[in-house]
Inverse folding.
């Protein structure tokens, strides 16, 4: 799929999501969620929420303090401790891991992702020598629009 087509699909997805929100007269909430322990960070992780759905932007990127990390996975849990999103990736430091690409996000049905809700983020990563590390963070959601 070429870059122009990706941008078109991305824009169409966002427009359909926003149109459905407007028709239902639901308030949009935008959350920028910090995911970091100093060694591993997921930057630009943003979620747009309506009363019954969330749209997860797929423009986040990974930053590492140590080039010996070979894989990472993380999970985002809603206020009911239900897994709403997970991601796993092998790490290739020959690529530019700081590069932001415009990709199409996706929509998930969830009514447990509103301002004031506390969510949980679990991150697991493995070093090239097999050492495994993890961290968990509880985040209280705050609307970026306010």
């Amino acid at each position: 799929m070429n870059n122009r087509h990706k941008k078109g699909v991305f824009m169409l997805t966002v427009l359909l999501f926003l149109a459905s929100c407007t028709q239902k007269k639901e308030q949009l909430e935008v959350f920028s969620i910090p995911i970091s322990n100093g060694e591993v960070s997921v930057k630009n992780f943003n979620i747009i929420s309506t009363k019954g759905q969330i749209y997860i932007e797929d423009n986040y990127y990974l930053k590492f303090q140590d080039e010996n990390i070979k894989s990472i996975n993380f999970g985002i849990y809603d206020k009911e401790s239900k897994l709403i999103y997970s991601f796993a990736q092998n790490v290739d430091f020959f690529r530019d891991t700081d590069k932001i690409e415009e990709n199409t996000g996706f929509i998930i049905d969830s009514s447990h992702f509103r301002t004031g809700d506390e969510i949980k983020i679990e991150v697991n990563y493995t070093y090239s020598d097999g050492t495994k590390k993890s961290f968990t963070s509880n985040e209280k959601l705050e609307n970026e629009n306010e």
